[in-house]
Amino acid sequence: MRRLLAIGFIWLCCAIAWLVLGTTVVVRTGDKSSDLRGEVRLLWGPEIVQAPAQAHYQETPALAGEGPVTEPPSGGTAVAGDAHGVDETGDRAPAGAASETIAVAGQALGDPKGVAVAQTAVPLDGSDIEVALELEHRKKGLLWFSTYEVDFSAHYAFANPTQVQRDITMSFPLVGEGVVYDAFKVLDPEGQLVDAKIADGAASWTHAFAPGERRQYQVVYRSRGTTRWTYGAPAGTSKIKDFRLRATVNVADVDFPAGTVSPSSHQVDGDLWRGEWAFDSLVSSAPIAIELPKKLNPGPIAARITFFAPVSLLFFFFVVSILAASRGKGIHPMNYFLLATAFFAFHLLFAYLVDHLAVLWSFAIAAAVSVALVASYARLFVGWRFALVEVGLSQLIYLVLFSYTFFWKGFTGLAITVGAILTLFVIMQITGRLDWNEVSNMLRPDEPPAPEPPTPGPPTPEPPAGSGPPQPEPSREMPSPPEPVAAL
């Protein structure tokens, strides 16, 4: 019992040491990740969230005879008298357009007379978008980041919803600060370059639309970003009409974040992933997003392996102690302590090698060093055979192989569970016929084993008659009585 308590105390101390080491790795990784992520975004651009094109037209409802205009309190927003969206021809505006009619003070629009102007949104009549993403993992400091180049080409269709000619202003939102646009251009239906003005975070242009006229414009640009690419209006629920988006990525392992719209269809063609989102009519507030795969970062995996180390050591102690008892070999708790320190050497060396070498090379070197420490030490008190077979093989399974399962994304828990069940099966088969009472008595340190009785030698042969010198015959006289001792 004292031996078991000592081994348990050694395991607990090692578990605390691994907890401290794992926390240190997490802190180091977190500090570097937050600092380097900002640097990468400054150099390569942030995550691109592209909103769709928008359009609107303006009018003066008071001059058009649509009713009085309510004066805004203290320079606020003025609202047209007809709240149902009836245009100047007397026709009711289409659903969705009237509800988005906003009247703003004329001064805000640069009207010197201060006449209120109504601004009515024109919904998209169709979207046909093609996106090509080219992933390239880039290393900054000690971490890998997913960066990409994006080629964007979109055809947006707008239609005049009224029965009069309108000057419709269309705008294409730009992502924001830190995004670089290369070869940005807007083309009209004839393929001619449109003189778009860049202001207030958008490129805008205005064209006259005949009553009911539908026109299509193309927006093209090339840019770059990090981590994921998103398309959609994240604020509010919108109605999507005649929507098509085709995406191509130069890697097959792409993902879709939670809360986004999954593709209507997708396929993998070699190293290319192709997906399509196609909707004739969709009401949704969820965007479309493609999350690019991440390269294995050494910090997080080193932390996970370190936090799992106490479980590996527990398996190792259990198997080695059972096998040693079955072979009649007593291992002192001090031996277990030094074996545990060799285990700890693996995680300590691995945690700091990954700062300078690739993850797999760091793992292989740390594993080789730890196994060499354990085997060379164990052979001194259990012999080479037991050190290489029972001890060395146990360390390979419960330290090296169990730790390597963290490289198998999604299969770590299953692999460890299967390994634990196989361990139980093997130990039960090896020890099923052992008499544990006899093993306990044999390994009890308080009672040394009883000495074996001496082996009797061969009987001494009697010399043959007549050989050797004559032996005197024993005297047959009675012994004389002893003389009395004089009294003092």
Structure description:
The protein is an alpha+beta fold. It folds into two domains: 2-29 and 296-441, no CATH class; 45-54 and 123-291, Immunoglobulin-like (Sandwich), CATH 2.60.40.3680. It is 34% helix and 27% strand. The protein is built from seven helices and 18 strands. The strands form four sheets. It has a seven-stranded mixed sheet with strand order 10-13-8-7-15-17-16, with helices on one face. α1 packs antiparallel against α2 (298-326) and α2 packs antiparallel against α3. The longest helix is centred in the first third of the chain and has 43 residues, at 2-44. The two termini are 67 Å apart. The model is unreliable at 62-112 and 484-488 (pLDDT under 50).
Features:
18 strands, disordered C terminus, 2 domains, seven-stranded mixed sheet, Immunoglobulin-like, alpha+beta
How are the SSEs placed, and which strands pair?
Elements: H1 2-44, E1 48-50, E2 54-59, E3 69-70, E4 79-80, E5 102-104, E6 117-121, E7 124-140, E8 143-159, E9 166-173, E10 182-187, E11 197-199, E12 202-209, E13 214-226, E14 228-231, E15 238-249, E16 265-269, E17 272-284, E18 288-291, H2 298-326, H3 333-353, H4 359-382, H5 384-404, H6 412-431, H7 436-443
Parallel strand pairs: 1-14, 7-15
Antiparallel strand pairs: 2-6, 2-9, 3-4, 5-6, 7-8, 8-13, 9-12, 10-13, 11-12, 14-18, 15-17, 16-17
Helix pairs in contact: 1-2, 1-3, 2-3, 2-5, 2-6, 3-4, 4-5
